[in-house]
Amino acid sequence: MLGKKMLDELNKQMNKEMYSAYLYMSMSAYSEYIGLNGFANWFMVQYKEEMEHAMRIYNYVNDQGGQVKLMAIEEPPAVFESPLDMFEKTLTHEQFITKSINDLVDVALGEKDHATNIFLQWFVTEQIEEESNDNDIISQLKLIGDNGNGLLMLDKEVGTRVFVPQITGDSQA
Ligand code: FEO
User: Fold this and answer.
1) Contacts by residues 136-141 (CB-CB < 8 Å, ≥ 24 positions apart)
2) Shortest CA distance to 76 belongs to which of 59, 61, 88, 93?
3) In a domain, 172, yes or no
4) What is the domain count for the chain?
5) Any domain includes 173
6) Could you tell me if residue 166 is inside a domain?
7) What is the 3-class SS of 49-98, one letter each residue?
């Protein structure tokens, strides 16, 4: 059983995860547009992961007998300055998501909602990995600078990222 505030905040978080998916889909499209197909793959994998994050919340709210409420998804930017710009924006966005998850944990603790607190721990851990991945790629892009060969090598490397599904759409996350 979810309290009203907890339910509202979970529905808002689902929307933020959907926006994250949309943002990375846009970055994937832009990467492909400028000929960096490896980066396009990396961001498309990220898009799929974000859709799963949204579905985790969707499934959890349903499992707890709450009412899922879908909200409008904001339009993401369509043009970026460079791969570094995309990853810096990705990191900034993930830091925003981390704060949002932490705020959700605070709500769960405040309401003594232990089930939601446990549910959210997966997201707390996931955010550490997400920020770390972004920081690694930002460091590499800064080292590469305007070296075209270096950029193409990194493009090849991030092109090997594979999406590994973790949940099925209709059961528990
Ligand atoms: Fe679902 Fe990238 O946070």
Assistant:
1) 137/87, 138/84, 138/87, 138/88, 138/91, 141/83, 141/84, 141/87
2) 93
3) no
4) 1
5) no
6) no
7) HHHHHHHHHHHHHHHCCCCCCCCCCCCCCCCCCCHHHHHHHHHHHHHHHH
> 24: domain CATH number?
1.20.1260.10
Cβ contacts of 78-85, under 8 Å, gap ≥ 24: 78/26, 78/29, 78/30, 79/30, 80/27, 80/30, 83/31, 83/36, 83/39, 83/141, 83/151, 83/154, 84/138, 84/141, 84/142
Ligand 1 pocket residue status of 101, Cβ below 6 Å: no
81 CA from centroid of ligand 1 (Å): 22
Amino acid in the structure at residue 149: N
CA of 97, closest atom in ligand 1: 3
| pLDDT tens, the chain, 173 aa long | 899 999 999 999 999 999 999 999 999 999 999 999 999 999 999 999 999 999 999 999 999 999 999 999 999 999 999 999 999 999 999 999 999 999 999 999 999 999 999 999 999 999 999 999 999 999 999 999 999 999 999 999 999 999 999 986 554 44
Q: Is the CB of 94 under 6 A from ligand 1?
A: yes
**Cα angle, residue 161 at apex, residues 159 and 163 outer, rounded to 5°:** 130
45, two tokens? 């994998």
| Domain carrying residue 120 | 4-158
